[in-house]
């Protein structure tokens, strides 16, 4: 069956935003739940991310805020912090969004999210003294 426009557009958006991390999520689902992998590509990335009104950096900051507020989605939060950085958000913007969540989601959720952000920033060499820092 040929890929739908939703799937094709979604896969392109997933690749642009999440790159290798997005591919790993989809690959991890193929053996156990290929339909879920397809839904992840088609609905959020093929439908929602294609809507007008917000650009990709705004959508990724909103996603980081939501995942931080949930407080129990660190693997997904890490993927979307990478995604936010991939589409042009700055580490400072990510940090500010997480700090904002302390007001609405509480300090434990914000602290957990900040720890995830620190891990991502360290992996990418965005903290002083981290690998790749010059």
TrEMBL record:
InterPro entries: 4CMD/NDH-1_regulator, AhpD-like, CMD-like
Pfam families assigned: CMD
Domain Carboxymuconolactone decarboxylase-like stretches: 34-118
Gene3D superfamilies: AhpD-like
Transmembrane stretches, start-end: none
Gene Ontology MF terms in the entry: peroxiredoxin activity
Signal peptide from the UniProt entry: none
Protein name listed in UniProt: 4-carboxymuconolactone decarboxylase
């Amino acid at each position: 069956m040929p890929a739908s426009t939703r799937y094709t557009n979604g896969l392109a958006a997933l690749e642009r935003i999440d790159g290798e991390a997005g591919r790993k999520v989809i690959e991890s689902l193929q053996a156990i739940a290929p339909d879920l992998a397809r839904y992840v590509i088609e609905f959020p990335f093929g439908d929602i991310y294609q809507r007008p009104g917000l650009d990709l950096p705004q959508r990724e900051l909103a996603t980081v805020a939501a995942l931080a507020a949930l407080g129990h989605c660190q693997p997904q939060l890490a993927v979307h912090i990478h995604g936010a950085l991939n589409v042009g958000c700055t580490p400072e913007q990510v940090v500010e969004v997480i700090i904002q969540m302390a007001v609405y989601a509480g300090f434990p959720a914000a602290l957990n999210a900040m720890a995830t952000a620190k891990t991502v920033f360290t992996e990418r060499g965005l903290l002083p003294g981290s690998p790749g820092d010059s």
